[in-house]
Specification:
The chain is of the alpha/beta class. It contains seven helices and ten strands. The chain has helices at about 20-30, 65-70, 100-115, 140-155, 175-195, 235-250, 260-270; strands at about 5-10, 40-45, 80-85, 90-95, 95-100, 120-125, 170, 250, 275-280, 285.
């Protein structure tokens, strides 16, 4: 019997959809007991407000920085659930970038990863229940501005000129409507992930696999060029010495019959160093 597949589900939303967040947690917690999924899957909910699973809001950093340090990011999860109604949230500046809110940042983090690698699965919900905007309300302007931000955000999901839908999302009128839709959608997403092979993350310090070299690695009488750097071996000591000399001196002469050491050896280890050939008469003299 195979071990159950462990999945991370990230919940992202502003603070005006507390009912939907609570219902989402209930659905996720009950899902492993579904007869068709029992023993096949376990869930880890990533949410700053989940009882016992949140992260402390430290005084020395912004809330978003605390969340990112204490919890997995959306891009590190399998499923990301984004819920909106009438609030976008508090503006956020993070790592030199400006976002409409923390939810907006989490959405962008998830979508960038999804477009790049196909993970996570991102599902977006928008509550369509009418909101009460009264001009006599002292917070009327703030509420209107928040609603307007949400409107503009979703307007960006449609191409202005052609009306082409660029990003899909789901609507609901009441929290109960959301619960029914989310339960159906989550089952479909889990089924899709179970049928797909798990994505194995490559450790950051593991070098990428080197493709096999096409054809013969022996150029004959032709000199090795920068394109041949992956198969230029055996001159490591000389190459290291050359790199050190170039780093320490404004002028280094490389004299040889073929130029392989300079082109394929030095060129491989000194990416970004600009060199200029100043003489070529069978031998090669280059300066940095």
């Amino acid at each position: 019997m195979t071990d159950p597949r462990h999945m991370r589900i990230f919940l992202s939303s502003p603070g005006d959809v507390a009912d939907e967040r609570a219902l989402a947690l209930q659905v996720i917690e009950q899902m492993p007991y579904d007869p068709l999924l029992r023993g096949k899957v376990t869930f880890e909910v990533v949410a700053w407000d989940k009882p016992g699973a949140g992260t402390p809001m430290l005084a020395t950093m912004t809330p978003q920085e605390a969340i990112n340090q204490g919890l997995p990011r959306p891009s590190e999860c399998d499923i990301v659930v984004v819920i909106f109604w009438a609030r976008m949230g508090t503006p956020l500046d993070y790592k030199g970038e400006s976002y409409l809110s923390g939810t907006h940042y989490e959405y962008e983090d998830a979508m960038q990863s999804a477009r790049r690698s196909g993970r996570p699965e991102v599902v977006i919900y928008r509550g369509m229940e009418e909101i009460a905007l009264k001009p006599t309300d002292p917070d009327f302007l703030k509420k209107y501005e928040q609603w307007r931000l949400v409107e503009d955000f979703f307007a960006g999901f449609v191409e202005k000129d052609s009306g082409k839908i660029l990003v899909g999302y789901n609507t609901h009128k009441t929290p109960e409507d959301f619960r029914r839709a989310f339960e159906t959608h989550l089952k479909a997403l889990v089924k899709r992930l179970l049928e797909a092979p798990p994505v194995k993350a490559r450790p950051a310090d593991t070098p990428p696999a080197i493709a096999l070299w096409p054809g013969s690695p022996f150029p004959g009488l032709r000199a090795f060029t920068p394109a041949d750097a992956p198969i230029f071996f055996g001159r490591g000591r000389e190459t290291d010495a050359l790199v050190k000399r170039v780093s320490a001196s404004r002028f280094v002469a490389v004299v040889g019959a073929s130029g392989s050491l300079w082109r394929a050896g030095y060129g491989r280890q000194s990416v970004g160093v600009v060199s200029q050939r100043v003489r070529s008469t069978g031998a090669h003299a280059d300066r940095r």
